[in-house]
Structures are given as C-alpha cells and as structure tokens.
Amino acid sequence: MSAMLKLASVSAFYGPMQSLHEASLEVDQGEIVVLIGANGAGKSTLLRAISGVIQRRGEISFLGERIDRLEPEDIVRLGIVHVPEGRRIFPGMTVRENLEVGGHAVGRSAAGIRQGIEEALAHFPRLKDRIGSYGWSLSGGEQQMLAVGRGLMAQPKLLMLDEPSLGLAPLVTRDLFDIVRGINESGVPMLLVEQNVGLALRYGQRCYVMETGNIVKHGPTATMADDPVIAKAYLGS
Amino acid sequence: MDPIYLQLLVQGLAIGAIYGLVALGFVLIINTVNVVNFAQGEFLMLGGFVGLTFGALLGFPYWAVLVCTVIVFAILGTVFDKVIYQPLRGGDFATHLIGTLAAALIIRNVAQHIWGPEARSYYEPFHQKIFDVGGVLINPQHLLILAMTVLLVAGLYYFLFRTGLGRLMRATAQDRETARLLGVKVKHVGTLTFSMSLAMGGVAGVMVAPLFLVDLNVGFIAGLKAFIATIIGGWGSIPGALAGGLLVGLVEIFATHFFTAAFKDPVAFAVLMLFLIVRPSGIFSERVGDKA
Amino acid sequence: MRLLQYVVLACLIAGVVKLLGLSAYTGSILVFAAINILLCLGFYVIFGLTGILSLAHAAFMAIGAYTSGILSATYGWPIVASVCAGTLAAALAGALLGLPTLRLRSHYLVLVTIAFSEVLRQMLVNLERWTGGVTGLSVPMPSPVSWLGVTVDPSDRTVYLLICLLSIAVMVFALTRLRQSRVGHSFEAVRDDELAASVIGIDLTYTKILAFVISAALAGYGGALSAHFVGFISPDYFTFDVTVLVLAMVVIGGKRSIVGVMTGALLLTFLPEALRDLQDWYPTFYGVLLLVTLWVAPNGIAGRVGSLSFLRKRREPGTFAKPAGAMRP
C-alpha cells in the first residue's frame, strides 16, 4: 500500500543552519504515527518542513503528488493541517472566530463553516460553553482543544499535531488524547509529535525517534515500548 | 456658552478626524505587516491632488471623485506593497523606515513634476460656503468630514469583525506565522492592507483639501501628526488611532485659538511628550487580546 | 595613519585644488562636499556606530548655524569664537535630546527626534526678533587674518576648503581612534545588543548621551561652517529633508565605515552636478538609490566593496574581542 505522506531524504534549514538531516518517513492511511525525541531534536522542524514554512530540500509527497515546492497555503488546501506547538490560537478573537478563521483560511463556504463549527463542537463539547470567550481567557486545555478544532475546520486529510500535551495537566491530556484518537478513528490519519513518550507509545501505531535532526530509529510502537534504549533514555526505568 | 467654542469643537473634531483617518491607515499597516510607514502622510497630500484632478480638472461630480480616489489609491497600495514592502520584507525597523522614507521622497518629487510646485485650490463640494445657524458659524465641510469618517470607521469595523476576509486580516495581525500555517494567503492580506490604508489616506486628503490649500508639503506634517496620534492612542490600537487623532486635532485648534497658530505643532508635541512620560502605553494601551 | 599624515593629506588636497585653478562654483561644491562629510561623520557616530536612529540632525545643524550666526552678526563675536559656541550649543542640545529618550524604543525615539527637529525649526521661524524668521539672517563671512606676516583670507574658497579639510582630517583621525577605543567598542556594543551591553557593565546612559553629544557637535559645527560660507541662513535650510539627505549619504555610502560615509557624502554632493539637466529629479534619484542600496547592499557601497575578500583587512591578533555579531566594514 503506498503511503499517504512520504518523506525521502528531506533536509531543512533555518538560514545557514541545517536542522534536519536527510529524514525519511511515511504515514499511511488510518494510522497515528508518533515522532519522539528530546528537546531540539528537530521534530517541530520536520513538521514545518512538511508544511512548507521553512527552507527545505528533498522529496515530500502527499497522495502521490510532490509537495516540496509548494507554498504553505497550497499545502493546507491539499489537506495537510498543522496544529502548531504552543497552541497559537488567536488571543484577540473568540472561540467562534478562531474556528471560523480555520475555515475562511482555506476558502470554505459560509455553510461549510457553520457545519464545521458544529462538528468541532461535537468533538470538543467543552468549547460550547466558551464559544463567545476570547482566546486569551481560555485555559491551556481549552486552548489546545480550540487549536485542534480550528485545524479540523480545514477538513484535513492528514492532521499534524505538535506537542499537544505540553503544559497540560494529566487528566486534561488524557481527555484530549481520547478525543484525538476518536478523530483518528473517524478517518483522519495523524502525525503526532510528542515529548511525553508514554503517551506517544500508548496512542500511536508506529513511531520514529529523532535525535539532533536525524531519524535514528523507527518501528511499530509495540516493539518500541520494549526497546531498552528508549526505555532508558526517556522513561528512565 | 459663547458659540465660538462650539465652532472650535466641530473644527477640532473635523481636523482630528482627518488625522485619525491617516493614523488608522498607519495602524493597519503596523498591525498586519509590522511596518511603520513613513510615507503615510504623503498619501494625504496626494489625495488632495488626485481629488483636484478628478474634480476640478476633469469635472467629475463629487461622489465620483471620492470613488475614483479610492480606486486610484487602492491600486497605488498594491504598487507600494510590491515595490517598497515586499523587497524589504524581513528587514529590521531601520530598513523599513529608510525604505518608506525613500518612497516618500520619490512620491513628493514625482507629484511635483505632475502637478507643479505651486499650491492649488480645491474647494468642492461646498465651495467654501459657511452657514450661520443661530449665531453659530458652521462649515459644512467639517460636517462632511465627520460624517464620512463615521461611515469609513463603521465600514472598517464591519469589514474586520463581520467578514471572513476581515477576520483573516485580524488573524494575520495577531499571529502572522500561525495564520500562514493555517493556509491564510498572508501576502494577499498584506497587499489588501496597503490598499485599504492608502485609500483611507487618499480620501482624507480629498476631504481636507477645501479647508486649506492642496500643497506638496503637507505630507510631512500630516504623517508626523498621525504618528503622534498613534502613540498617544496606544500603539497598534485601532480605536486608539482615532482617539489620538481627535485629541491632536482638538488640542491644535484650541491652542491656535487661545495662543497663536505658531503654537499648533509645539503643543501637539508637548502632548506627545506628556503621554510618553506619564502614560507611554497610550489611551488604549495594548493588551495582547485587544488588537483589533 | 597618524594625525600628521591626515593633516598633510588635507593640505595636499587643498594645494592641488589651488593649482587646478577651479572656478568659484566648483570651489563652492568642494566646500559643500567637505561640510557634508563632516555632517555625515556626525551621523555615523549616532547611527552607524551606536545604532540609534535619531533624525534630528538638521536641528543640531540649525542650532550651530544660528548660534554662531546670531553671536557674530548681532553681538559682534569673532567668528572663531561664535563657531565654537555654536558647536557647544549643539552638543548641549544633543545631550538634552538624548536624556529623555534613553529608554524609548526605536519607533518612539525616531518620532520624538523628528518632532523635536520640526518644532525647533518652527521656533526659528517664530522667534523673528532674534532669528530673522522666514526672511532669514545674514551671517558675516570670515575676514582676513594676519599671522606671523602671512595674510590668510578665509573668504577665499580654497582657504575655506582647507579649513574644512583640516577639520575632516582631525575628525577622521579622532573617530578612527575612538572606534578602536573602549568607548568606541561600547558604542558598537550598544548597537549590536543593548541588553548584553548593559549586562557586561557598559553604562548605557553615558554611552548613548556621549553618542548624541558627539554627533550633535559635528552637526552643529557643520551647520556653523556652512552658515559663514554662504553668508546667509534661514529655517528653510534646516528642514527634515536635510536630515533625510544626510541619512541617504550615510546609508548609501555605508553606515558602518568612516570611508563609507565619506564616500556617500561625496557621491550625493556631486550627483546633482552630474545630473545637471535633471536636477529637478534629484530627490527621485537618491530615493531610488536608497531603495537599491537597501535591496542589494544593506551596508552601502563600502559594505559591498569590503565584502570582496581580497580587500578585507587582516584582523590583528590581540585586538579587543568584538561582541558576537558585530560586523567589520
């Protein structure tokens, strides 16, 4: 089965500095693929390279088409949605407006946006109560839900989440991840970057490990969980 | 109450509204593309000349003059975006300052060649008529300015808060990178911002022309006042730009009345310094969530 | 180079000019070029070295010019004394402007300096009794001096040029030394990273005020020199456009190097002469030059030329460590 998203020897640069070295990766239909590694390993950089917001080299294909020469706005419209690290919701806009922007950004119709908001609220009922509140007044968990909901407004064929658990309490994180899994089961494959390795291995099917800009290991999460190297480095057992 | 105060009030508000419109354009550009546009005042100057051309020279009716002015400046905005802003994108504050200053130089010089160095007059639509209403002298141009400003600001708010494109503009202003990541065509938003901003300056120029003369040199002072209004009102705040402009206008007019015209600009400067010392964040101090 | 060498060079240039027997007009252009160099050196200190974008240069020129002009014309001071007074007045004004603006962020600072400059210009217009207002002020030209049996007539263009060139010689020498000194490095540290500079113990207040004072003094000196050369001053000579022109000279020539700013001054002084028929378009020309400089050579002509590797100066071992990111000319 050909992969939905395929990276072949992709490198990325911040100015003259190379922060991603010839990474190769695949995401297939229906999967949750997790990307783990220490701070600064290059996980966010990899997502950014896919999204087209930084300088990149190498081959990136989505649904069989090359996307490494495209602008971010085209990549989103093809169906790759990136929910960035740190939530990054618009603080001066309400929950509703944040969601609307997610739809307007890709040119969705007014009717489509209304429907999209309903669907997003169905996934994240907690946002219903806060629909008129401004972004800056939301809690961390609510902001993260909003960020994911906003991403869903673009009707993603592939959803990329960057460190959704960062700064969230464990209970909130668990709720969030259950919802995320539900989204995946409804047919949206995901590329998930996570610092919390336990979470990553529990929710993902396959896993890539990154270190200083290189992918050093990959395989099914079931085998990874038993890998002593991983266990020692990240779970501290 | 002495009717003179009512007249001064109306006059101050009208002049203030002009400054406010220029400042609004200034703030939109600051918010969306993070550039301090030192050529902003020149578009007020150009507006007068463009209005003069359509109105006095080509004989268009007043409503058509306004519409054509908007169109001309919207186009100028896209040119400005492509020629001045885009090539310097990512540069630091000094780069944008020097770039927009260079633009101002060129605009003024070209305008001089098109329309000549002399000041001209353009008195439409009221041809300097003044009405006497029960002892109070009312200049209809002032009322027109106030009415148009209310209309333009209302239109601006409707656009920003009730339309999809307007929301995209606000989103870009609040977090350009994330907006880009969501698929917003931020380059187009930038171009639109310049078009809107220059159009506001141009229309303000048409409306203020009958109160003075259409003169090549007004751009500098107008830009300076708009800049002052922006700081007084609160850097990056849209209601602030308007409030700052109105304040500067009122202060100016009343200072001219109580002292002399020579004090117009020094008083505005004094107000600026006062704010910078006492309340540097301005009237509507910027809170992360309040950027419109 | 040592001071003596600069002085000799200045005399040589003046001598060559005298030998060439140029017309009065060309002589004037040369004097203006020299004065522009002095103005640019001043702007170099505040903007190129210290990174402060202060656009009040014309105001300091005006203070120098009017102080010297009024003292010599109305109060009969000898010109040497009035020029000194003018320079000091401008330096003082520089300190007075620098003080309240120390903590202002760049976009606020630039506005305050522009507004200050404009308000000052308006004051010159309004205080007619002292300044002559819009109609301007006649300023005495320097009279011949006899010294050790030699009569020198400063109103002779070549002699005036020599005075300007000697001033440049002294200033270039002083600034080159300043640049290599601890004070000079403080300036550059403030430019490159104010926070880091303060953390390593640089007194920001002192450094910034000093930059203001030096640049204002040079502007005032240049203003006074030009006043006594032309014989007449008016507020129109000190508009914001003048500051912008100096800014253009510095940016186009290269704001990071002394040679650069001198190049810029010379280029933009001679450009209108080269464009004789198109003089009306001069602002457009240097506006476009400015834009092109920003696009392709952000450090100006000197920056572009300096990046040609065979021209790059060899770094001497043992010089002070420069803050990270500080660039060579």
The secondary-structure class of chain A comes to: alpha/beta
Unreliable stretches of chain C (pLDDT < 50, length at least 5) are 315-329
Q: Helix count of chain A, per DSSP?
A: 10
Structure class of chain C? mainly alpha
Main sheet record of chain C: 2 strands, antiparallel
Order of helices and strands of chain A: EEEHEEHEHHHHEHEHEEHH
Distance between the termini of chain C: 17 Å
Q: Please give the number of β-strands of chain A.
A: 10
Distance between the termini of chain A: 37 Å
The assembly state of the depicted protein chains is heterotrimer
Low-confidence blocks of residues of chain A: none
Number of domains of chain C: 1
Question: Any chance you could write out the topology, listing elements then pairs?
Answer:
The complex is a heterotrimer of chains A (237), B (292) and C (329).
Chain A (H helix, E strand, L loop, with lengths): L4 E10 L2 E11 L4 E6 L5 H9 L3 E8 L2 E2 L5 H7 L1 E4 L11 H10 L5 H14 L2 H4 L10 H13 L5 E5 L7 H16 L4 E5 L2 H7 L2 E6 L2 E7 H6 L1 H8 L2
Helix pairs in contact in A: 3-4, 3-6
Chain B lengths: L2 H31 L6 H18 L4 H24 L7 H23 L15 E3 L2 E3 L1 H23 L1 H11 L1 H6 L4 H23 L9 H16 L4 H21 L5 H15 L14
Antiparallel strand pairs in B: 1-2
Helix pairs in contact in B: 1-5, 1-6, 1-8, 1-9, 1-10, 2-3, 2-4, 2-8, 2-9, 3-8, 5-6, 5-8, 6-8, 9-10, 9-11, 10-11
Chain C lengths: L2 H18 L3 H26 L7 H17 L5 H23 L4 H21 L1 H4 L5 E2 L6 E3 L2 E3 L4 H24 L1 H11 L1 H6 L4 H27 L1 E2 L6 H14 L4 H17 L7 H15 L3 H7 L23
Antiparallel strand pairs in C: 1-4, 2-3
Helix pairs in contact in C: 1-7, 2-7, 2-8, 2-10, 2-11, 2-12, 3-4, 3-5, 3-10, 4-10, 7-8, 8-10, 11-12, 11-13, 11-14, 12-14
